[in-house]
Design goal:
37% of the residues lie in helices and 22% in strands. By secondary structure, the chain is an alpha/beta fold. The longest helix is centred in the first third of the chain and has 27 residues.
């Protein structure tokens, strides 16, 4: 093998390794959720621990009033809960289960701005998980619909 070919092969190997590293960084970043919550909300803290337990890294923003964040991300009034989060360009409102977030990110649906568990229902992650039923909804330009 000539020196030129060896150098070219080495350059390709380095480029491939660098590309793989960038893919891994992008995948890691895809698991970062930013959460806006009040400092005194205990159920928000429970939900954060829950999503961390499902492999997400959480960046918490303590705010006095979460409503301006909800307004910024256009969370409909009827879908609102106690905390608001963002991941992968989507808004996650309230006590949404990790499985629904995983599905949303995997599907990458157009026309959905985010997911919500309206209110603070028993049974939802971070609340009294007593098996009570609750509904996960999507919201966006087409309105609010059950997320399946």
């Amino acid at each position: 093998m000539t020196v030129r070919r060896l150098a070219f092969a080495l350059a390709l190997l380095v480029a491939a390794a660098a590309g793989w590293a960038l893919v891994r960084v992008a995948q890691a970043d895809a698991r970062v959720i930013e959460v806006w919550k009040s400092q005194t909300c205990g159920c928000c803290t429970e939900w954060i621990a829950y999503v961390e337990g499902h492999g997400y890294k959480v960046e918490v923003h303590q705010v006095e009033d979460v409503d301006p964040v909800k307004d910024q991300f256009q969370v409909p009034e009827e879908a609102r809960s106690c905390h608001t989060a963002r991941i992968g360009g989507y808004t996650i409102e309230g006590h949404v289960p990790a499985e629904a977030i995983d599905k949303l990110l995997a599907m990458g649906p157009k026309g959905i701005a985010g997911l919500a568990v309206p209110g603070m229902p028993d049974g939802a992650p971070g609340m009294d998980e007593d098996g009570s039923p609750y509904t996960v909804v999507s919201f966006g330009p087409a309105g609010i619909k059950p997320f399946e």
